[in-house]
Amino acid sequence: MSLTVLMNAGPWLSVPPPGYGGIENVIATLVPELRRLGVRVVLASVDSSTLPVDEKISVFPDGQFHALQRPYNQVCGISQAHLFGVVRALHSRDDIDLVHDHVEAVGLATLAAMGPDAPPALHTLHWDLAKHPALYGNLDGGDRVRVNGVSASQLARAPQALREHSVGHVHLSTPLAVDADRRPRAEKGDHLVILGRINPGKGQDVGARLARRVGVPLVLAGPVGPYHRPEDLAAAGDEARQNPDVRFFYDEVAPHVDGDLVRWVGTVAGQERDDLLAGARASLFPLRWEEPGGTAVVESLALGTPVVATARGCLPELIEHGRTGLLTDDEEELADLLLAASLLDPDECRREAAVRFTPAVMAQRYVDLYERVRQLASAP
Ligand code: UDP
Fold first, then answer.
1. Which of 27, 232, 273, 303 to mutate to test the pocket of ligand 1 (most atoms within 8 A of CB)?
2. Element (H, E) at 148
3. Which fold has domain 3-173+358-378?
4. What is the mean pLDDT of residues 214-230?
5. Residue in 195, 227, 264, 307 to alter for ligand 1 test, most ligand atoms within 8 A of Cβ
6. Per-residue pLDDT, 279
């Protein structure tokens, strides 16, 4: 296939990301598979990105994530400088067939504003958009700019202006799903795990309270605000409380963390993360927000760990109740489901991941969407 795609990853983190980095991880998973399918990829990112691509465009030498704490106008300045680099590249060459943009709102608006000279563009939505309708208000000239969600439920909640430009959704994937059905079974322990940013939406307070009620060990893994290790949070002192997730942790979660039955281990990565998930009796998602894509959900399935969750956001699309996990609308009922999770078959979870959530499945779906976006753009 002769298709050249400019993949816009934005200026915030290198690809693959050094640690945290949801969007950058999606791009790092997608691009090698696209290239295997014959797509040429020009990556617009920062110079320190090491992902193998056909060509790189960058304005900044390395990720500007640290600057996101700065005043709003400085953050916008960084965004604009990066996007100016992208727009300049698009104007100076004619070999780009399509832009695949992942830069929230600003990227989309810029592409829409470029008008008929720009290549058609597909913008992947990564957030729960119901809360940010204003960001996506103006899509003038948007017939050449289409969007896709990371789940059907995310799109259903998106503002009308976006839904009108939607070409569908593509579920997130994980490299862990490759051959997941053929890997040796992991030894199962007794513990539950909640993997994710400590945040009210992810509901670690509910999980911790219920785990103590039923007497099942629970490991909370993930950063609290910018703090990845318990000792870093402790050393930060009172100033850290300016961060809302830190306040949530101290006020709502920490009272249940006894260091014995319920533990917070900070951010886990690599083999440590995989072992923690694979060895758990279940992965718990006591969600209070409408989870848009749920990478940690598909990772859990790929590692043979059933999911127990509130049926919010994309969870009912990813999990089949009674086979790969247990879902409920009632927070308190999660406690019973935690105990029942050991009855589910880890092999069913791994089979599901190997069929639905591999990078190859995701890449093929994007190639189909690229085709559709180009057709729509060239229609009279
Ligand atoms: N993650 C991790 N270590 C942690 C916590 C999270 O590697 O301690 C990873 C997790 O494996 C997943 C990503 O961070 O790949 C979180 O993505 P998800 O879509 O689940 O949640 P988000 O934070 O983007 O809402």
1. 273
2. strand 145-149
3. Rossmann fold (3.40.50)
4. 94
5. 195
6. 97
